[in-house]
Amino acid sequence: MARLVRGQPAGRPVPGRGRAGAWVNAVGGHPAAAERWAKAASRARPGADGPGGIAPDVPLALLGAASCRDGVERMGRDAERALAEAPTGSPWQAWAQLLLGIARLLAGDPDAADHHLADAAEVGEEAGVDAAVVALAERSLLAMTRGEWQQAEALAERAAAGVRRAWLEQYPSSALLHATTARLTIHRGDVLRARDDLARAERLGAGLTWALPHLAVRVRLELARNYLALTDAAAARTVLREVDDLLAHRPRLGILGDQAAALRAQLDAMRAAAVGAASLTAAELRLLRLLGTHFSFREIGQQLQLSQHTVKSHAMSIYRKFGISSRSDAIRHARDLGLLVE
Q1: Among 107, 187, 119, 127, which residue's Cα sits nearest to residue 153?
Q2: pLDDT of the residue at 215
Q3: Where in the chain are the domains?
Q4: pLDDT tens column, 71-125
Q5: Domain 280-336 is in which class?
Q6: What pTM was computed for the model?
Q7: Domain 130-251+260-272's class?
Q8: Mutual orientation of helices 175-188 and 131-145 as an angle, nearest 10°?
Q9: pLDDT at residue 13 greater than cutoff 70
């Protein structure tokens, strides 16, 4: 995120200073300070372009899009306005493309979203800003929803390289990447690494507030999704409460509200089936992550360093505890309970 300090606007309002202060505090997770700076900027006498030839309205249009105060449709219009005036190749252009992509995503148009997110990633990587990291993480998650796990892995690796290259490891915007990586590692059956990624996502995500509500909610929804996949109902319940608090400030976030409701339903179902789920051993949980893949029992055994006979014994135990009789039924039942991330 932008490296400027938080503060109270003082003296006669200066347009460029107010706009920059509003944007920096918004992306820094300080909604109240962002509002103060935005009000100062709106009272200021219009002036010439700011540093680097930036059009005066670009930061405020981005702030409007980022805050999503007036809903997803207005978010898209603000992002389009910022994109039309942002200098080509600038960080402002990267953020405008990112916010436009997110607006399309929240409106339920993943194809249009992916197009703008790809542009945001390209421009953001050239400009060295964290908009690229968020865009690539979002594209990785979209690839997962299409079942394109190899592409999802490649996009996440590209985002991680950008984090290292631009020294963004401690930026809150990297939280979504860690939540994304956790989902990928759960899909591979690497539970220990997933736990590490989730811990990093939680720590960094704590800095995301309703100043950037879409990102704050998105990170927590992915955390909840991963915790449900790990059968950690308590952790999932905690982050979903945080989602409820964020949605109380910014309720008009498109499909995110529906996603939160779906995850709460999964949590309730998991609670209802707690006996069966809780009775799975650690070895059975590791196997369960891989039952949803195309690997045979022999190939799963090679990954887990177990014999084919042991894998089959664990699978039969899972079937018995779930009250079903086949691998396909086990996969379906686990997904219904939120124990598997699709």
Answers
A1: 187
A2: 96
A3: 130-251+260-272, 280-336
A4: 999 999 999 999 999 999 999 999 999 999 999 999 999 999 999 999 999 999 9
A5: mainly alpha
A6: 0.76
A7: mainly alpha
A8: 30
A9: no
Angle at 231 between CA 230 and CA 236, to 5 degrees: 90
Is 94:127 a contact under the CB 8 Å cutoff? Answer: yes
**Which residue blocks in the chain are alpha helix, DSSP H?**
15-27, 31-43, 57-67, 72-85, 91-106, 110-127, 131-145, 149-165, 175-188, 191-205, 213-229, 233-249, 255-272, 274-278, 282-291, 297-304, 308-322, 327-336
Per-residue model confidence as pLDDT tens digits over 205-224 = 998 998 899 999 999 999 99
Per-residue pLDDT tens over the stretch 17-35: 666 677 677 767 777 787 7
Q: Which of 270, 333, 283 is nearest to 310 (CA)?
A: 283
> Of 37, 29, 76, whose CA–CA distance to 59 is shortest?
37
First to last CA, the chain: 31
What is the 3-state secondary structure of 141-199? HHHHHCCCHHHHHHHHHHHHHHHHHCCCCCCHHHHHHHHHHHHHHHHHCCHHHHHHHHH
SS3 101: helix
Residue type at position 85: E
All residues at 6 or more sequence positions from 79 whose CB lies less than 8 Å from its CB, including other chains: 61, 62, 65, 96, 99, 100, 103
One-letter amino acid for residue 258 of the chain: D
